[in-house]
Amino acid sequence: FGITSDETFVITTTNRKEITEDNFSELVQDGVTLYLLQSVDQMLLLATKERIDFLPHYDTLVKSGMYEYYASEGQNPLPFALAELIDNSLSATSRNTGIRSIQIKLLFDDSQGKPAVAVIDNGSGMTSKQLNNWAVYRLSKFTRQGDFESDHSGYVRPLPVPRSLNSDISYFGVGGKQAVFFVGQSARMISKPAASQDVHELVLSKEDF
């Protein structure tokens, strides 16, 4: 790597967790992406790509976002699909000390290549590991254990408040993936963890599946 004997360096995960003798076996697994940096908080010089492998739930391939919404007992399913997307933002902003900002934009031009629904918030943001787990179908935000670092890590249901302010508004409880694929054919998640300078981006598409 061209490191001289008098240079110091660190090896970290893409979540900027330094690899040490104590955590090596826990953090270094087959296929994991690692950074070789001068310091843990060094700015990346270029955009990097991380390989993400997961086995999609068969419903992702067979039903995508359709089944739960078409089985909605005669109700208009679109509001429930949008509620799932907003639900993620409500959870992400639940611990904000200042203003909670959630924007919903309907884009009918070609700025994103085709019409799109954009949900933007100023919440806690997601690490690359949390984005990876967001992609896994039917991985509940309240039941993820072990190696799963939830996109709702640390989420605590708030004291009784109107449902519009907490993160339990989703009607079907089937998650953002199904909502995305009910509304459209691809999802682009862009997130910056509050405590990190890194911006992570994940793209899922019907074509990929």
Characterise this structure:
With 209 residues, the protein is an alpha+beta fold. The protein has 2 domains: 1-54, no CATH class; 58-146 and 164-205, Heat Shock Protein 90. Helices cover 21% and strands 15% of the residues. Strands 1-2 form a two-stranded antiparallel sheet. Strands 3-4 form a two-stranded antiparallel ribbon. The chain has a two-stranded antiparallel ribbon with strand order 5-6. The radius of gyration is 19 Å and the shape is elongated. Residues 140-148 have low confidence and may be disordered.
If you consult CATH, what is the topology of the largest domain? Heat Shock Protein 90
What structural class do you assign from the helix and strand content? Answer: alpha+beta
- C-alpha-based Rg, rounded: 19 Å
Ends apart, CA distance between termini: 36 Å
Largest sheet: 2 strands, antiparallel
Number of domains: 2
Helix count, DSSP H or I runs of 4 or more residues: 6
The CATH first-level class of the largest domain comes to Alpha Beta
Overall average residue pLDDT = 76
Judging from the principal axes of the Cα atoms, what is the shape?
Answer: elongated
Q: What share of the residues lie within helices?
A: 10-25%
Protein name: SMHD1 protein
Pfam families: HATPase_c_3 (PF13589)
Organism: Oriolus oriolus
InterPro entries: HATPase_C_sf, SMCHD1
Chain-wise SSE layout:
Elements: E1 10-13, H1 24-27, E2 34-37, H2 58-62, H3 67-70, H4 78-92, E3 102-107, E4 116-121, H5 128-134, H6 176-183, E5 186-191, E6 200-205
Antiparallel strand pairs: 1-2, 3-4, 5-6
